[in-house]
Sequence to fold (270 residues):
Amino acid sequence: MTGALVSVDLDRTMIYSRNALGAAFEDAVTCVEIYQDAPLSFMSIDAAESLRSLAAAALVVPTTTRTIEQFQRIALPGAPWRYAITSNGGNILVDGVPDGSWRAGFTGIELHRIQRELSTRADGDWVLKRRTADDLFCYLVVEPTEVPAGFLTEWSCWCAARGWNVSQQGRKIYTMPDVVSKSRAVAEVRARAIEDGMLDAGVRTFAAGDGALDADMLIAADRAIRPRHGELESKNFRFPGLEVTAASGGQAAEEILRWLQAQVGNRVEP
Fold:
């Protein structure tokens, strides 16, 4: 039985593009994702080892907005994972297999209605791609500097009145139903792990993430940490019990993992 549940966002929290990782690491990195025969995502060597150590001491739950297919491309140190959360909480993987009963709870989502409305509002050259994720939500890939002034505010207001939310993370603008959230999925995993005997009923929960779609997960945890970069940093997102790293980029990932190790009583020096 482990004494803690740790939910960790992946992109720009645990894993990074080579540029986002930062120049400080030079060659001290490991590739954790290959896409179209090219390296895509990386971790520092120290971060990779720390994540393996953390996974041996706590129930670590990778928690990502990526689709199932996108998540399965990642060779994340510490695997295999008893539980993983993808699609921003819309899917729970149990020993790598999507849980049908959890996914069935989202059958009433009116994604097509949202997409139709979005197509009338986002039709300029600034939209590079339109994507649907696991039939749960949609997102645009955009030229960030060319997004029309007021688009995000107007689209967010329209969506909020219908139980959806909007978040821009880099080149992607997500449109997400409120019922699909990381915190709800983490709570479900916690309940199942207690029922399975993996965790005791009084287990403490910890979380790490960098984007607005991580905010509910961070707030729901007993304690949480975010890096000093990303969407939450730009919003100066803070609350009691939230730690913010001193570093940014890949060095923030190392700092996050050291902090998490200390919280679960498994302090390991790199």
